[in-house]
Amino acid sequence: MDLGLAGRTAIVCASTSGLGEATARALAAEGARVVVSGRRAERAGSIAAELPDAVGVGVDLTDPEGPDTLVARATEAFGPVDVLVLNSGGPPPSTAASIDADAIGKALVPLLYAQQRLVSLVLPGMRERGWGRILGVGSVGVVAPIPGLALSNIGRAALAGYLKTLATEVAPDGVTVNELLPGRIATARTAQVDAHQADREGADVDAVEARNVAGIPAGRYGRAAEFGAVAAFLCSDVASYVTGTAVRCDGGLVASL
């Protein structure tokens, strides 16, 4: 299937590792011109050098000027942005009873505030051209809050509410807005969460992972490339009638429809 992404310019946030990197590689494989971004400038450049048509941008999106810098660099390299993949590392594991307003505020900077600023910078051009794709990388915690990840649950739910509202507003302009919710994908973040869970329970991390795998109908953790493939589809031309949705990539982990 031709996804119609050849020549499209795509920004992928936090794409120097994990799900962001997998998404950047999937988009590049479909012919998109990809802006690889993250705090590690050298790593962003290294990944970009491996892709057919890409540029690496070192940027901290929690810096007030970060989103503007990223969009400016993308536009300078490839022109107007057609695809925006919103992604961010997760905040530290925490319980709901232990957090305070300051912790919530810090978590919202990368999970919501920076994301909204990025959207505000690229959305006018997308609407004017009559084509655009905005995809938020979230978590199944949006639909089934994950124990021990209170800050992530709060911040990602806030982003989901914003994106769902936005999707309705911009659908007539040819711009789709969706979320892709990973379950347990084999990434460094998942390893961190497993380690925290093991520490909290006083258990062996391998035993924790085995128990988590047992709760996944697919019988394994997902692969980052599998997530990237779904992300590329949701960013594609052929997915033009898919908007305002939250698609789960979780091996059947969440029991609800």
Observed structural traits:
single chain, 257 residues, alpha/beta, Rossmann fold, seven-stranded parallel beta sheet
State the CATH class: Alpha Beta
| CATH H-tier superfamily | NAD(P)-binding Rossmann-like Domain
Provide the β-strand percentage band.
5-15%
How would you characterize the largest beta sheet?
7 strands, parallel
Question: Please, how many helices?
Answer: 8
- Give the beta-strand count: 7
**In terms of structural class, how would the helical and strand content be classed?**
alpha/beta
Helix content: 40-55%
Unreliable segments (pLDDT under 50, ≥5 consecutive)? none
The N- and C-terminal alpha carbons lie at a distance of 27 Å
Task: Please compute the radius of gyration using only Cα atoms.
Answer: 18 Å
Explain how this protein is built.
This protein is of the alpha/beta class. It has one domain: Rossmann fold (3-Layer(aba) Sandwich), CATH 3.40.50. The protein contains eight helices and seven strands; from the N terminus they run E-H-E-H-E-H-E-H-E-H-E-H-H-H-E. It has a seven-stranded parallel sheet, with helices on both faces. Helix 3 packs parallel to helix 4 and helix 6 crosses helix 7. It is globular and about 55 Å long. 45% of the residues are buried.
